[in-house]
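Lab notebook, bench 4. We co-purified these components, and the gel suggests they stay together. Before we commit to crystallization screens, I want a quick structural picture of the whole thing.
Request: model the full complex, all chains together.
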Amino acid sequence: MKMDPFQVICGVKLIRGISSHSIFLILLLDLFFLISKIIQVWCLLIFMLILSILWINSDNNNSFFRFSYIAICSLALLHQLDKINVEKAVKYILSCQNLDGGFGCTPGAESHAGQIFCCVGALAITGSLHHVDEDLLGWWLCERQVKSGGLNGRPEKLPDVCYSWWVLSSLIMIDRVHWIDKEKLVKFILDCQDKENGGISDRPDDAVDVFHTYFGVAGKC
Amino acid sequence: MNQTSGTTVAISLITSGFILPRKGVLSSCQIQITEVGEGRKRYRKMHGISRKTPSQDEQEASDLKAAELRDLQSQFLHLHHNKIYTKEALETSAKLLVVNPEHYTGWNYRKLAVQHFLDHQSETEVDSESIQLVLNEELRVVENALKKNFKSYGAWYHRKWVLSKGHSSMDKELRLLGKFQKLDSRNFHAWNYRRFITMLKKISDEEELQYTTDMIFDNFSNYSAWHNRSVLLSHLFEKRGKGHSHKESILEEEFEFVRNALFTDPDDQSGWFYHLWLLDQMVKLEPLLLSSWPPHGCCLYLSVDDYIGCGNLFPRIHFQSKDRMFPIVLYFSEAVEGVNSSTVTIEYEYYSNDDVIWRPLSANRFGCAQAWLTYLNFPDEVHFLKDSPVKVVVAQFPGIVSTNGVSFSQTSYIEFSLCVPSHDREHTEGQTIPRILWKNEKFHPHITESHDASLLNPLHQLKITEEGKSKSSDWSMKTIANEIAHCRDLLSSTNCKIGKLTLARLLMAQSKLISYCIPNDGVKVHYEEILGLYHDLMELDPVHICYYEDEHSLVLLKQVTLSMESILRYCHQYGDSISPSMDSHFCLRLNDLSLSRIGNVERLLWIQMLDLSHNKIRSIEGLEALQLLSCLNLSNNKICSFAALDPLRMLKSLKVLDISYNEIGAHSVDTRRYLCSFPMTHAVKNDWNFEEFANVGVDLTNHWDAFFIFRGLNLIQLDILGNAVVSDQLKQLLFKLMPSLNWFDGENRN
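Here is the predicted assembly.
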């Protein structure tokens, strides 16, 4: 098969620096505008496919499940979920399930909203949500909403705009999002705006950044 | 989290179509990310940085640092790509990692370097001292990196990796951990690492338990320590097997321990979450068979006329069945799997047990459900049956297991008799079917007559063997009563939200124990008190009002279904006049009760007509067990999508449905999508039949969910107006899917 030189570059970069894939992805996308759309899609597909399969099947799976979530998500989008052992992945996710209904990053680890998003997302994609106790987890998640209306990531921690996404989308997946006061949350996110320079920060009066701007906007939607 | 988020951002942006057309957005993103990639300083410090514009000097200093870092980074990448692992090279990487511990490539490079060294070592001779030196150096780098950011995933993982190469004194590790946990007792990296070390070093659970005790005494508000405690105790319980008394004494101590925390600071959640776990440990029961239809001891009359069954007054029950089949429903206390013809045997003259197929009534496709269904029939040759016995034996052989892995062990028997009267009426197929009007004037309250004394026989009565009763119920009852008393004591001095919630949960747990474990020492459950607590909570904590409404609904339904007497209070007869009970159509009317969800339906399996209108219902999960349901009114509720109607797909008897004035189509996000068995979830097994799409002839793109719900239903009457989703296209689809539809939105289609 005649290899497009761009694809070759993709492949080489991938093997060299699997850990910098997130940066690479962004850079890759910018270069897309320079070449035709068909090749764009092809590159992205191959890139995601290789990455996902390699990641899930590697040993790194255990420590960095959040990357496995991305892999499962990508594979599902590309209709290639059958290339990995889904049962094994689900079994691992369930081993991280805690007694409070949430999920930690390793078996026995404390429940954390971001990790819950990754696990619930992966379970939803693989059609395994029946393993989740929606009422127990839903209550744990809705208790992340504090008096100010913002959401924190774990009990007795400060609220943070990025959890608008992690907690909210988890609640949506298990159909318990009505257990949160949406208006108060929106008010909290809007309070975190920098009205002079634009952007959203993690908490009111903190410095803004793209990360929190994105999750603030996503949460508002 | 941060690295994942970057990629998640990218992927979500792609899939939502934002990135490709808007170069502007991407360029600005790229600038930020380039700075991130090259400098990574701002990236790391994204939380808790105050918003003030940096001064000129600060900006210059920051730019200088960024420039230095860019050089360092490109140097490092050069070394990495060329696989240079000299001492100087390693120093460069160490410098980089100290500034930015999240640089995964940096850590991977060091791993490759160590591996390279070890491989080289094995070729010559094994020099354990130099190996130790190298590994020590790695640990030193990790420690320095952690000083910069003690939440770095990469750094902690590298430390674990180094230790797995075989090294280091555990005491040193524990000392290091001690330092970090003093700095931040909630640092979950440190706790995870602690678990890793204790496993490696085989430190006993008891010792670790003592450590959590110390941490908690230091500061009660340490959710991480409480969490670890629950993990350790679970291990201990598992290891020591099924010895009840030991577990009971531990739980008692734990209750006392957590009480200290709760009374010291009732508003801190950490202790309350632990208390909830303790409660769960205490009331963990085996799965039980709660009820069945047909109920034990009844006489089932099968007839082929009347599309709405006649009154279901125990012990004589009528069931209409044109195809000579009748269902058997088993309802368990929790979702179970393994119900099949080997674990549940049916002794019936006209049907072989081997042909019986049990189906789980649930939205998922994994073979576990709270309610299970099968059908029996009687052969065509048989025109008349009198008192033909049917015996269902549940769990004669083991195999039924709850989703938590607990076996269902008590053998239960359901015995009833079957009668088929010879047909004394003309088959009424050809007659026009009148429209069901859900108006108040059509309903008449059921007048309890003297012969209804037999109705007070609970419909769910089953013959449960003596061994079935929970062995440790006495201790549980005593402990729960104790906890309730302590909780009331606390609430007398503070108005604490989570304390009230815990009291409500304790009272509900007590009611569960009472209903499942007989005898109950005459302890009555006061549902009114529980409902009152939830009302208080709605005022005290309005942020979570919908959660309390949901819980309130479940308690209310429990109260309504407490006894036949209480159920009958909500029962009405449908018709133009009060007819004798034999021919009346019973309807359970639960309107205007602010119900938001359904549950506790074990005593409602006999319901054929149900009116749930004018509530706040979002989810009808639980209705799938009501297999006899033929008329259902869900109008004026808060149903947000067709996916929420998924349980109706399992109600094969459903003929009349009113879902008018709901919110279907009014919401952009369908929150039930992943909880119902839609083919759109990416499960590997997929029973989506694409040919069905092609044959309908109507454009299904916008209404695939309506197609999925209604294709299996054979409704005679449907009301759907007042929903945003209604359109001519949808109406065409519905008419095509249900050719027997006579009444649509009040109009006769014939």
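DSSP finds ten helices and no strands in chain A. Worth comparing against the SEC data before the next meeting. Residues 37-57 of chain A form the longest helix (21 residues).
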